[in-house]
Design goal:
- The chain is of the alpha/beta class.
- The strands form ten sheets. It has a five-stranded antiparallel beta sheet with strand order 14-3-16-18-17, with no helix packed on it. A five-stranded mixed beta sheet has the order 28-31-32-33-34, with helices on both faces. A four-stranded parallel beta sheet has the order 5-4-6-7, sandwiched between helices.
- Helix 24 (713-726) links the parallel strand 32 (699-705) and strand 33 (731-735).
- The N and C termini lie far apart (67 Å).
Length: 814
């Protein structure tokens, strides 16, 4: 059982996760996945972060050599740290989101106490996985002699190009210790040269041309990074869309996706932080190709950049204009700006934080069909090809170091650093998936997929707060399960239908009281000042009498539905069929008692004569007209509760944003939403009517109102507080009123500076075609033409095949 999916009861017991017949992926509730799903397996070596003495270039060089010693270790990251044991803000943030298996301190500092949750922290370098020398020794004879490996250490450390060669090509491993040789089952005294040919010639023309030829693989030798990655594939980060343009909403790493691998590190020779920066940039893209590249800060820097900008060295993505970032850990951004202006218009100075990407471990990808039962499934640990091409090249010690990560197809888990720590699961959650736990049968692994609420609540907890589901949120989520998902909301995306639902739900409850109280207050304040008290008392007295007497207040007829569907009988029939199939309305008949002259509604199961009048108890033999029956429909208690708590606007706003963000040109923009969350922090509490969780782990709060009159300054202050608590890049307010009917507070609530605040109106929330088209602006006040130009609900339902059997009539026989 997932710890994150258990709720403690008052008596200390546990409540199992909620089970629904249909799992709704983007609804972040407590229901867990069941049934058959496509799943991707990523079989990988572990991935580490190595701390590096920020003031020692030789230590950074040693760290590079260590990463190249381990088979599949070239995507490890290097983090420069100060002797005080502190990380700079940029490096600490990068480390916190990098989702590594463990942090290796390498004894470069006396103590390391990170201020953010991290994975396992270890001291030494031993027992980290299979050594490259061990893997090479197990390959077939002759294979290792085909292409020699260039030794980058042949470039002198005093040469300004040494850092570029080491950061781009890596370094050959040091001779393994006797213990390492024993663990790898190798002959004592074995060296790297014994298992692989090494090219120890010093390059004739050390510089950009020689380096590019080696990184592009067009030279006659390979290099240590490629050697350490033999047999593995590269999973690269998202590169964004094919078109230029501003993102729809603020997103993390959006600037890095405008550059991608088109980065040049301008470094100071023998600077440890610059070497770490270059290594991490190339590690994110698997050390493939000529970029990210590096150039020393010399008098010829502009000419070196121009030579590097020749065709074939950088990558164009789709129809976007090539832009190359100049970055550095040691050179000021002002100096980089001067270099860019003096070199080429395609170059742009950028801060280090804008290009660092979250990378993935080297991997072998395969697919499976998984059958989940209450969030659990069991899958093969590896494929036959993985076994023959990877496992058979591994020593008995190294076999236990590999991991299998499983990702639901199209449902990558968001970046939530605390899920990577292992406090919640035996399974670690990172890189969009779940690292499966070992079983007694080594051929299979148990996979436990977390519920949406577990992920959402943990994202909040990681910020030092707690999250609970609000009552309106719970009602909205249950309604969504009742109808079958976000796509099934189409029949209620209509203003007249919404008005009808509210009208027929208002016999009792807060919505009815608010509407009637509003009408009373408006009427009272039109009276003379001296008579206001008496007038208000009289009207409240009348209120209770009317509320008890109007029996037909929440009955719906076919004619009312047809009127809401602009007169379309076919659309009205389709709407009723949809609502009945989902048990949102109950069909019945209204009977007029001949004794007490009162009408009473009865469900179909009780309509067979004789009928007992619920008011006076009389038995009525002929309760209906002799020619035909007119059905009347009543809303279910679930529907009435949903309207009573004003939960519908939450669902409309969440649906619209999920659709819009799901159609963006940026992959995996949004993970899901929950329509009502209470956030608690340091004894304070604030509620988000909608809380979105983006793929980058950002939390987006929203305030929703049925009418524009409901928004107050206090609501905006509360939303601003929530935005600050959660560190949200943007927020929103939403209403079911049209843009032209919104009061001034709505227009002033829209904000573009800082953390933007978007204002969503009826045009967006009830759109039947919520999509972000190229150059469109769907989040502007009132929406754009694409949003507002969709077909009506009546038109869509009217085109569906008619399934209603027709109106029942009575027939007599002789």
């Amino acid at each position: 059982m997932l710890a994150g999916d258990l709720d403690e009861t008052d008596d200390g017991g546990c409540v199992p996760p909620v089970m629904h017949p249909r799992y709704i992926p983007s609804l972040l509730d407590k229901s867990v996945i069941s049934g058959t799903h496509a799943i991707d397996r990523y079989f990988s070596p572990p991935r580490f972060a190595r701390l590096v003495d920020g003031g020692s270039y030789s230590d950074a060089v040693t760290a590079v050599r260590q990463t190249c010693s381990r088979w599949g270790g070239t995507t490890d990251i290097l983090i420069p740290i100060q002797q005080s044991g502190q990380l700079t803000a940029d490096w600490e943030k990068f480390l916190s989101i990098s989702q590594v298996d463990a942090v290796l301190t390498r004894d470069v500092v006396e103590s390391f106490e990170p201020s953010v949750p991290l994975a396992d922290i270890r001291d030494g370098e031993r027992h980290l996985g299979e050594l490259v020398i061990s893997m090479l020794a197990r390959r077939p004879k002759g294979v290792n002699r085909r292409i020699p490996c260039f030794d980058p250490s042949m470039v002198s450390e005093d040469n300004p190009w040494h850092l570029a060669y080491v950061g781009c090509l890596g370094l050959l491993p040091s001779s393994p210790s006797p213990q390492d040789l024993q663990l790898s089952s190798l002959v004592p005294g074995t060296t790297f040269a014994d298992v692989y040919d090494i090219d120890t010639a010093v390059p004739e023309n050390i510089g950009p041309d020689d380096l590019i030829s080696r990184t592009q693989g067009v030279s006659s030798t390979t290099n240590p990074t490629h050697l350490a990655a033999l047999g593995w594939g590269v999973q690269q980060p998202s590169r964004g869309g094919n078109f230029s343009g501003e993102p729809l909403v603020p997103m993390s790493n959006i600037e890095s996706r405008s550059f991608n691998e088109n980065v040049i590190v301008v470094y100071t020779p023998q600077d440890a932080s610059d070497l770490c920066l270059l290594w991490n940039l190339r590690a994110a893209y698997g050390h493939l190709g000529s970029v990210p590249a590096a150039l020393p800060l010399t008098a010829s820097i502009s000419e070196d950049i121009k030579r590097l900008l020749r065709p074939g060295n950088f990558y164009n993505h789709g129809f976007r204009r090539l832009t190359v970032a100049l970055v550095s850990a040691s050179v000021s951004e002002e100096k980089l700006h001067e270099i860019a202006e003096a070199t080429d218009e395609r170059c742009r100075a950028a801060p280090m934080s804008s290009v660092l990407r979250v990378g993935y471990p080297l991997t072998r990808n395969s697919a499976e069909i998984a059958v989940f039962d209450k969030g659990y499934t069991r899958l093969p640990a590896l494929t036959y090809q993985d076994k023959t091409e990877i496992a058979d090249l591994t020593s008995a010690f190294g076999k236990g170091q590999f991991e299998s990560r499983f990702v639901l197809r199209g449902r990558n888990l968001p970046i939530v650093p605390s899920l990577n720590v292992g406090e919640l699961f035996a399974d670690r959650v990172s890189h969009g998936g779940v690292y499966a736990r070992r079983t007694t049968d080594k051929q299979f692994l148990d996979v436990v997929w977390p519920s949406g609420w577990t992920v959402l609540a943990e994202a909040v907890r990681g910020l030092g707060m707690t999250a609970t589901q609000s009552i309106p949120g719970h009602l909205a989520a249950e309604f969504l399960h009742q109808i079958g998902g976000w796509d099934e909301m189409l029949p209620v995306l209509d203003t007249k239908i919404i008005e009808l639902l509210y009208e027929k739900s208002q016999k009792s409850g807060m919505s009815w009281f608010r509407n009637r109280a509003t009408q009373i207050s408006r009427a009272v304040f039109k009276e003379d000042a001296g008579g206001r008290g008496a007038e208000l008392e009289r009207r409240i007295s009348d209120l209770s009498i009317v509320a008890q007497a109007d029996e037909e207040l929440n009955e719906i007829t076919f004619h009312q539905i047809r009127a809401a569907m602009t007169g379309s009988a076919r659309a009205a029939k389709e709407w009723i069929r949809w609502a009945e199939d989902r048990r949102l309305v109950h069909r019945g008949i209204s009977m007029l008692c001949p004794e007490c002259r009162k009408s009473a509604w009865m469900p179909l199961a009780q309509v067979a004569p004789p009928v007992i009048c619920r008011r006076c108890g009389a038995s009525v033999q002929r309760p209906y007209p002799s020619d035909r029956i007119e059905f009347r429909y009543r809303l279910s208690e679930q529907m009435i509760s949903l309207v009573e708590h004003d939960s519908l606007p939450h669902l409309y706003a969440a649906r619209f944003l999920l659709e819009i963000l799901g159609s963006t040109r940026e992959a995996n923009t949004v993970y899901g939403a929950y329509p009502g969350v209470l956030i608690r922090k340091d004894g304070e509490e604030a509620d988000a009517d909608v809380l979105l969780l983006l793929a980058d782990g950002s939390l987006i709060p929203g305030e929703c109102k049925r009418t524009s009159a409901g928004l107050k300054d206090s609501d905006l202050r509360k939303l601003e507080k929530l935005t600050s608590w959660l560190g949200s890049p943007w927020s929103f307010v939403a209403t079911l009123d049209s843009a032209e009917d919104c009061t001034e507070i709505w227009r002033s609530a829209e904000r573009s500076e800082g953390a933007p605040r978007y204002v969503l109106t009826k045009e967006q929330l009830l759109s039947t075609r919520p999509v972000w088209m190229l150059n469109g602006k769907p989040l502007t006040f009132g929406g754009d033409e694409v949003i507002t130009g969709g077909p009506t609900v009546a038109a869509i339902l009217g085109e569906r095949p008619e399934q209603d059997p027709g109106h029942p009539t009575f027939r007599t026989r002789d």
